[in-house]
C-alpha cells in the first residue's frame, strides 16, 4: 500500500531536524485531523524548543490547508503513514527519540461506524495496539502517552452525570472501539507502569472541522440553501467544547496530569440538537423568528442516536483547567470561519480526489 511516503528529500529534512537542538520530541498521531491540527499548531507555536512530529494517514476528513501555517516551521515534521503499520511505527520510535505521544488518529464518525465497523476496529484498536507496542519497546524511555478518548465510552445517559470512575457502556461501534483501545492503553499501565494518561472529551467544535460532524454539517448545508436535518423526535442534546479549550486541556494534562489516570474534558454548555439547528439558522440566514423552523426538518434516525453524554470535569479543573471560550464566542467565531472559507472542504475533496462522507444527502431543498 502506498501509505508510507518517505522519499529521500523528506528523509534528509528529517535527519537535519533530528540533529537540531530540540529538548523534547512530541509525536502527534492524527495531527492533520480537526483536533489534531489545532493541537499541532499550538505545540509548534508555543514550544519552538520542542520538535513536533505529525503521523497521519490523511484520511478523507483532512485538508492539507489545516496545517499550512506551520508546514515550513523548523520544529515541525510531517510523516504520512498508517498507525496500523508496525514497520513504520517501530521505525519512528527507533529513530526519532520520541518523548511524548498524543494519540488522536482514529476513525471518528459514529454513523459510519455502523456501516463499516471493521475499519473502526482496525484503526482505533489495532492502531493503538501497534503504537503502544512500538512506544514501549523504543530505546528511549517515553515520558507520556496521552490517549485521546471520548465521553461516548460511558454510553448515553438521561440523568446520570459520569465521572472518571463510571463504568464504560459504549453504545455504538465507534465508542466500543475507543473503549477497547482504552483497555489496551490501561493494560500497559497495569503491567508495566507505562506512563499513560487517558482523556475523555465532550463533543469538540470549531474552525476546520470536517463537514460530517453536526455543527459544520448544518452550517455547510445552510450555506447552499439546504435545511438542517434533525434525526428522530427524542430530545437529543450534546455538550460542546471549543477546540482551543480542548487543546489547552490536553497540554495541561501532559504537564500536570498524573500517570495512570483518566481525565474527563467536559463543558457545562449543553444544547438540544433541534435548538442548535435553530440557533445556526438564525445566525446564518438572518430570517425572522417565524421563518426559522422552515430551515429545519426532522428525518428518521437510523441507527438510534444517543440522548446525551453528561460528564463531570472536576478532576481536570483541580489541575487548573477552566473553559475560556463561552458558547456565544465560540460559535460566533466558528460560524464566521465557515462563512469566510466556503470552499475549504470542497477544495480539500479535489485535493484528495477520494471518497467523501455524504454530509448533505439527507437534506432537502430550501424552503
Ligand atoms: N471531535 C470530537 O468531538 C471528539 C470528542 C472526543 C474525542 N475525540 C477523539 O479525538 C481524536 C481526534 O478527533 P477529531 O475530531 O480530530 O477526528 P478527525 O476525524 O478530524 O481526525 C482523525 C485523524 O486521524 C487520522 N487517521 C485516521 N486513520 C489513521 C491511520 N490509520 N493512521 C494515521 N492517521 C489516521 C485522519 O487522517 C485524521 O487526520 C479521535 O481519537 C477522537 O476519537 C474527538
UniProtKB/TrEMBL annotation:
Q: Region Disordered: what ranges?
A: 347-367
GO terms classed as biological process: nucleotide-sugar metabolic process
- Record key words, sorted: Lyase, NAD
Q: Which reaction does it catalyse?
A: dTDP-alpha-D-glucose = dTDP-4-dehydro-6-deoxy-alpha-D-glucose + H2O
Which Pfam families does this entry report, sorted A to Z?
GDP_Man_Dehyd (PF16363)
Instruction: Write down the required cofactor(s).
Output: NAD(+)
The NAD(P)-binding domain covers 27-333
UniProt-recorded Gene Ontology molecular function terms? dTDP-glucose 4,6-dehydratase activity
Q: Which InterPro entries match?
A: dTDP_Gluc_deHydtase, NAD(P)-bd_dom, NAD(P)-bd_dom_sf
User: Which superkingdom is the protein from?
Assistant: Eukaryota
Q: What is its EC number?
A: 4.2.1.46
Q: Does the keyword Lyase apply?
A: yes
- Record's keyword annotation contains Ribonucleoprotein: no
| Catalytic class of the enzyme | lyase
Record's family?
A: Belongs to the NAD(P)-dependent epimerase/dehydratase family. dTDP-glucose dehydratase subfamily.
Q: What is this protein's record name? A: dTDP-D-glucose 4,6-dehydratase
Q: Which organism is it from?
A: Salarias fasciatus (Jewelled blenny)
This chain is encoded by the gene named: tgds
